[in-house]
Amino acid sequence: MNENFLWGGATAANQAEGGYNLDGRGLSSIDLCPIGEKRSAMIRGLSNQLTLDETQYYPSHKGIDFYTHYKEDIALFAEMGFKAYRFSISWTRIFPTGVEETPNEKGIEFYSNVIDECLKYGIEPIVTISHFDVPVALIEKIGSWRSREMIGYYLNLCRVLFERFKGRVTYWLPFNEINMILHAPFMAAGLVFEEGENQEQVKYQATHHELVASAMATKMAKEIDPNNQIGCMFAAGSTYPYTCNPDDVWQALQVDRENYFFVDIQARGYYPNYAWKFFEANNIELTIEDGDLALIKENTVDIIAFSYYNSRCVSADPNAASQAEGNLFASAKNPYLEASAWGWPIDPKGLRITLNEVYDRYQKPLFLVENGLGAVDEVTEKGEIIDDYRIDYLSKHMAEMVKAVDLDGVDLIGYLTWGAIDIVSASSGEMSKRYGFIYVDGDNEGNGTYKRSKKKSFDWYKEVIASNGKNL
């Protein structure tokens, strides 16, 4: 591995910060997603509940209280030897309703302090601008990303961030897992569907607005600071055919294209032919303004960033295999793979396959910015958290990653675990689904001391980083 390889971890504002109504922060889309049976309909855009319900518990309101613990948490990241820490901006901390002309200085101050803490320890801040987070006021006012007006409000946010943090942040990701708009459209983009409308039409029109916004943000970032590095970011994981039946192979190719569609545009700079044919077959007519396609063509990303949790498996025959669930993606159950406690397939070699497929396709530097295992951690009578299962998961994935780099020639600039510390799960809203090297004493209903404790994996990852991936 390159000696400058960026080892570290990642979190998201809506899963970690808490303080949802402190220091002028406005209501965000994720603040409306409760834990429990109503969460799925909400994150998929099937509920029009845009006000808080006092009978529900909303995990993002408290998160893990990173808003007040950030110095302690970043010091722990530094103790592990992090070279990079990825975090996201809460849009409504900067612009509470999204339409303000001037930013909320308290919000700017918070993120400036987080960046300063990172730089104090020599940690590279990796900033995601929009991570499952839009102002509720913009959903009510214009329908969020279904409206082209959203681009202007988003660029106001980008400009403030690029200007205020110039020279202190180099790596920027305009959108987190941009392809999740197809699978969790409210969580990903604040989309709420009306009865009877063509949902695919809405999702892909909103996608076009985000792709134009991404290109414009890339252009703006370079103009403000030519040293800025911009990466797209998508939820990755190669798709396997369930059998060697050509129908299954074709189905797997189609599913991969659905995910690569976004990156094809952001990295190559144009809508691929297969996309136009898909739109035609599904009665999707995009409103594309003059100059949009040229803008996309001229402002491609520098880096391909992605998350990897598992591969997928598909069959052309819906009755041919039982179903597994992984990161909100429907998938056939792969009989050759074990699964996590939440049913997500565990496929270390799939990471090597994915790294090679993505690099072969785009020939741009890659950045793995999420990889991890959600599991239930038990605290022993001695206060220890022996998470050997997490060490096993991560070490096997890292071993395949090292092979992709050292043996296959993949250009990978860094590896960030999800998460650096226990946080609220995006898909389920649970605290019990833990990912971090640092245990946070909180439960699914927000009870607990929120005290931080090191898990066994903490010292293990410290050694991984110190050895630059040699000691796994």
Report on this model:
- With 472 residues, the chain is α/β, with parallel strands linked by helices.
- The protein has a single domain (6-466), classed as Glycosidases (TIM Barrel, Alpha-Beta Barrel), CATH 3.20.20.
- It contains 15 helices and 16 strands.
- The strands form 5 sheets. An 8-stranded parallel β-barrel has the order 1-2-3-4-5-7-13-14, surrounded by 5 helices.
- A hairpin with a 5-residue loop joins strand 11 (338-339) and strand 12.
- Helix 7 runs parallel beside helix 9.
- The chain is globular.
- The two termini are 13 Å apart.
- The model has no long low-confidence stretch (mean pLDDT 96).
- What CATH first level would be assigned? Alpha Beta
The helicity comes to: 25-40%
Tally the beta strands: 16
> Approximately what portion of the residues adopt beta-strand conformation?
15-25%
Topology:
Blueprint: E1 6-10, H1 13-16, H2 39-43, H3 66-80, E2 84-88, H4 91-94, H5 105-120, E3 124-130, H6 136-142, H7 149-164, E4 171-175, H8 185-189, H9 199-224, E5 229-236, E6 239-241, H10 246-268, H11 273-281, H12 292-298, E7 303-308, E8 312-314, E9 323-326, E10 329-332, E11 338-339, E12 345-346, H13 348-362, E13 366-370, H14 388-406, E14 412-418, E15 438-440, E16 452-454, H15 456-466
Parallel strand pairs: 1-2, 1-14, 2-3, 3-4, 4-5, 5-7, 6-8, 7-13, 13-14
Antiparallel strand pairs: 9-10, 11-12, 15-16
Helix pairs in contact: 3-5, 7-9, 9-12, 13-14
